[in-house]
Amino acid sequence: MMVPANQRSTIALLERASWRKGVQVLDSPDALSFGQPAVLVEPETLTPSALRAIQEGASVFVLINQLHGAKLLQSLPNYRHQKAAPWGEWMVTPNHAFSPLTRTPDEFSVRTAITTFTPPDDATTLLTVNIALSDHVVASQQTLGKGQLTIIGLDLEALAGSHSWLERTMELLIATPPSRKHDTLGIGVIGYGPYGGMGLYHGTGAQETPGLQLVTAVDANPARLTQAQQDFPNLIGYRSAAEMFRDSITDIAIIATPPNTHFDLALQALEGGKHVVVEKPLCLTTDEADKLIDVAESNERVLTVHQNRRWDQDYRTLVDLLDRGVIGDVFNIETSVGGFDHPCRAWHSDATVSGGLAYDWGAHHIDWIHQLYGTAPERIFAFGHKSRWHEMTNLDQLRIHLQFTGGREATFFQSELDGFRRPKFYVQGTEGTIVGNYMPFEQPRVAPVTGYQVDRYHYAEAPVALQVALYEGPGRLSHYHPALLPPDTFGFHRDLADHLLVGTPLAVQPGQVREVVGVLELAHRSSALGSIQTLTPR
Fold first, then answer.
1. What is the pTM of this model?
2. CA dihedral 99, 103, 105, 106 (to 10 degrees)
3. Least confident residue range of 86-100, 118-132, 276-290, 470-484
4. What pLDDT, in 10s, does the model give residues 488-512?
5. Which sign does the torsion angle of CA 14, 20, 21, 23 carry?
6. Alpha helical stretches, state H, 374-509
7. 200-210: b or e for each residue (b if 16 or more CB lie within 10 Å)?
8. Which residues contact 276 (CB under 8 A, 6 or more apart)?
9. What confidence tens digit (pLDDT) does each residue in 163-222 have?
10. At residue 321, what are phi and psi to the nearest 5 degrees?
């Protein structure tokens, strides 16, 4: 049976998500296999053979079409169609008593048409909408024999907008919880750091994420371990990482030490049976990355990188604009970071420890570019300068030019000599351009005795306001500022918990960050040799 054209983008989304090994995306109930998990896309009815397949152990998710929703529900025992409501913005409330949905907001909006229904008494309500001050069911789940039947009364096209809470809810519902040792996973941070550092950040992220808890920390500084135990009572402090790798309470080791230590610590943690999160960059070379990936796979452990900037408001808004095709086909992406000031006098500015100038912010910016294009570049050329800040061994400035298939290009620019700060984002498409300019991040206040003061923060911590320019015809451009998506501060931690405890796909895949490391490694090589470099696939 041919799938209508207006359904293809959603089916592609369903298949791309790879929620569970072996899941089928089908448009005919007769195609169900006994014991085979599947998503049924808008069937007209569920046939007796389909119901038998469910009773024999299939886990089936049925997306209702408004046009024949009543007929479909009539084909199911004890389901009753209520109403089909038109396309609009509906506020959806998840049932947080249903465990996986505790990782979604209390309420989120969906632009969709809906079909409400009354499920059987033995079914669990998953999602409701409130109409005229009354809750109406739009999704339920029922055990039938050895299998499960999930009915979802939301228009198919509502799923076509990726990175939405509805998409995440679908991932959570379809995923099957793997066998696991704990309902709550213990996190340990190696390199707790000073107050306000990565230990406090990851510990707070764990507190805010169902299924995670900070249980251990490693730091060579006793004062920092004391601070850690004040921040998180009952936390166990270690003076060495080896102690953590031998314990039985740390499920996930987060490595928050300088980059030149990442490889050795990650390798030891994986060999010790821990899942591993590494602060960016993963490591300094693709050879190291390949070794870590191989060990993670052979030990059946998760390896990922804290690419938290994927959850930044401005970047997520940019992704949303490009996903919706607002500026047409994108052919050029430029990102930058820097200013004109003395670089920090710490390990971040020493190439033997940091890996080089681009390994810090560049690990985020190159990752952004790869995610926006959906692939790594074919060729890399970089040009660096060492002209002024001779106290530190990092380059003062580095420009990385990337060439992708189909003539697309991208540039990452980092500088400590940039007197007029360039845009954070500059993206060109066939129908328009998007720009996001950095702004000063300052907070004026009046202090007792000393009076007026201004607290200044790192400019790159604040989300930038995006501006869109669209071609409207000869001599005409329209401009507007899209509203930023809401903050998602601990999205990385939620994604990690969902993957380990529920089985949803992991957002930051090790193969993706291996490509980022490869670009950073080759960019510094290109700058040193003055030659074009080619990234070798794994």
1. 0.89
2. 20
3. 86-100
4. 999 999 999 999 998 888 999 999 9
5. negative
6. 491-497
7. bbbbbbbeebb
8. 252, 253, 254, 255, 266, 269, 270, 292, 296, 301, 302, 303, 304
9. 678 878 887 877 765 544 458 999 999 999 988 789 999 999 999 999 999 999 999 999
10. -60, -45
